[in-house]
Every structure is written in structure tokens, then in C-alpha cells.
Amino acid sequence: MAKLLILGGGTAGTMAANLMRAKLDSSWEITVVDADNAHHYQPGYLFVPFWMKPSRVVRKRTKFFNDGVTFVEDAVTRVEPEANTVHLASGRTLTYDYLIVASGTRPVPSMVEGMAEELERGEKVFQFYTLDGAAELHDALEKFEGGKLLVHISEMPIKCPVAPLEFTFLAEDYYRKRGIRHKVDITFVTPLDGAFTKPVATRELGNMLEDRSIRLTTDFQVESVGDGVLASYDGRELDFDLLVTIPPNMGQQFIIDSRMGDASGFVETDKHTLRSVRWENVFVLGDAGNLPTSKAGAVAHFSAEILVENLCAAINGKEPEASFDGHANCFVESGRGQAMLLDFNYETQPLTGTFPLPFVGPMRLLKPSRINHMGKLAFEQIYWNMLLPGRPIPLPSAMMTAGKKFPKED
Questions:
Q1: N or C: which end of the chain has fewer CB within 10 A?
Q2: What span, in angstroms and rounded, lies between the C-alpha atoms of 277 and 254?
Q3: Residue 341 to residues 180, 351, 364, Cα–Cα distance (Å)
Q4: CB 407 within 8 Å of CB 365
Q5: Long-range contacts from 382-386, C-beta under 8 angstroms, 24+ separation
């Protein structure tokens, strides 16, 4: 029996397993490996510090695999791509004909001096990129009665790069509703040269920070955290009473140990075909690759059907011809019951306009609206009931230019 092995049972791995099960006949065995049987709705981490119950975020992975998909609960320790073999923590080995790496990314606070220790202490420094961290941050926000609040990104790339901005806007709104906003001095601290990565989005998001009286500190390459001070390599020091930090993100340790990735542990991937640039029977989906686009669930969703088409082509002895354009589509919670929407790809930066229909929308690009916020909340049910099972969602994988306002050239 031919074997398709998928490393990672998160968003990307679950979608890939179910979509490939619908394509391959019974002569193919499809196996998913992950260290535990808990599937986390990671977009929910953003809301846990404010109102979402942690229990709402987690469900059993096995509930979402279609018939004909085998789940192995075990940690991957090493991959031997030349031998088509995967080693597991239990001592078991698995072989494959084709491999999909969908192992995601992880926060690694130990990469910054003092950060891991301060997070462990749980007094002034918190994060929300893990479920436990988000739950602890909920209590910290409740107890905080005023002072300097820093929201900080250590370095790029990170999972869901707009999430720190979303958290900042939600925190501003949270303390406004509590009636103590005037006591909370909020600063958004980023290693980028602006609020975001591209000119139009940087302008619009930067304007919103200014409108909400949120300070912006740019080009901040963090060196250390400790004693209520965030320090950069260029000698700047920022005092804080509460720090919400995004630690450096890296690929999984087994990618590093197997020498399958770059220095950050991300698998080098053809950005169009989603095939490994080193091994023809290895494909990569989701945050595990080094694609030059956002590490986000939307990217995993839009690229999944491209991967399925190309993997099926390879299995049938053909060259992969389907091409992923880097399409990303991200809601940005802006507080006050509103959200913005970003839609972009490798070639087109996030722009203002309407989505998905020109002039009509109903969603607005890079402008806050109630319907964008409702779309963000509705995505939770779409995620569990349509996206993971591999049911079709009426949005094309390629980015549409209709409705977007392109800047005028000088």
C-alpha cells in the first residue's frame, strides 16, 4: 500500500489529510502524526485575555479527521528524507512515499535574554501565543489598574503578524470601557519601521494607533527583558509596568535536528508549487514553510487546494503546475465592535477598497467596520464546520484585484 504521511495535525495538516483522502483511492494509506490529541482554534488565543473561555478553544483532533485517515499520537524526533523515514519519540519509525510537513511554528522566548524567565515568573511579562499564556494574561489585564503597558514584537516572521496590533486595539478598548484608559499609557513596540510591513497598511494602521493615543516605537531590535525594562541592541530602554510580548517564532525542533530547514527551522519551499526545494516527494503546508507571505490560517486554506493539485500531479508522474500566489486574507480587530480587513498576495500589498465585490463589499479593506468584526467572529464556526473537514468555502484561492484601490503612481 502506498503511504502519504503528514507531520502535524493542526489547521494545515487536518485540511491536507481530509482533502487528500477525497482524492486518493483505497490503495493509499494516509497517516497524520502529532504529539497530542488536542486541536487548538488558535485565532481564539486573541480573545482569551478579554472574554473567550479557554475551554472553547480546544477540541479533540480525531473528531475532525474524515474516514480513512489514521492518527498517530506521538512526537516526531527526526526525519530522514533520503530514507523516506520518520522517527518518533516512542521509538517507532514510519515510512512514506510522499510527505507533507504541516508542523507549524512555535514561540521560543529563550531566544531573548531574560524573556523566558520573566514569562515563567508571571508578574509583569506575559504573552498570548499559547493558550496557557493567554489565560494568564486575562488575569493580569484584570488586575492592572494603570501604568505603562507595552505590546511588543520580538522579531519577524511570527504567526499571524496582525495579532499584536489587534491585541493593542482591544486592550485600548478594554481599559476605555473600564473607565481607566487615562491611567494606561500604551505603546506598540515593533522591529519594523512602521506599524506594519507595507506602505498603505502601515499608513492606515499607524493612523489608527495615533487616533487611539497609542504610542509607536519602531526599529526596536530587542536585546533583553528584565527588572521592568525592555532593552534594544541600539541602547534604547523602555520602562514598563506590564509587558505583553510576542517571543521569536521558530519551526519545530525536529526540523532543525533533521537539517530540513533554514536557520529558523522553516522548511525551504517553492513559493508557488509548495514543494520542498530539496526533496521532490516532500510538500509543505502552513506555517512550517518559509513562504514570503503571512503565517496565517488563511494562507494555509488558500494554498491547500494548490498543494493537493500539485501533490496529485506528482503522484501521477507529472510536473506540478498549479501556482500559489501568496494570497492572505486577515481580519484585524480594532476594538469598539469593529474590525479591519487585509487582502494581499506576493505581488500586491494590502490596499483600501471593498471585499469581495467592487463598491458593494460588504466588507471594507483597511477600514474599521461592524461587518468586518462580525466576519471575524463568524469565522470560528466556519473553521470547525467547513474549513477543517475540507468542505468548499466560496472564496477563490487566488487573490482578486476587483474592489481594491491601487495607489496612483507619481
A1: C
A2: 18
A3: 29, 10, 6
A4: no
A5: 383/11, 383/41, 383/43, 383/297, 384/41, 384/59, 384/64
d(CA 123, CA 101): 37
pLDDT digits (tens, 9 = 90+) for 149-191: 999 999 999 999 999 999 999 999 999 999 999 999 999 999 9
Cell numbers for 275, please give them.
Answer: 514543494
Give dist(CA 197, CA 305) in Å, integer.
Answer: 27
Question: How crowded is the C-beta side of 27, counted as CA atoms within 13 Å?
Answer: 3
On whether the CB atoms of residues 338 and 368 are closer than 8 A, the answer is yes
Q: Which helix (H) or strand (E) holds 85?
A: strand 85-88
Question: Residue 292, SS3?
Answer: coil
Amino acid at the residue 185: D
Task: Check if the beta carbon of residue 68 is closer than 8 Å to that of residue 60.
Answer: no
pTM of the model: 0.95
C-alpha cell at 165: 496590533
Reading the block at residue 292, the C-alpha cell is 514570503
Q: In this structure, are residues 39 and 80 in contact, taking their beta carbons and an 8 Å threshold?
A: no
- Which residues on neighbouring strands pair with residue 88, listed in sequence order? 76
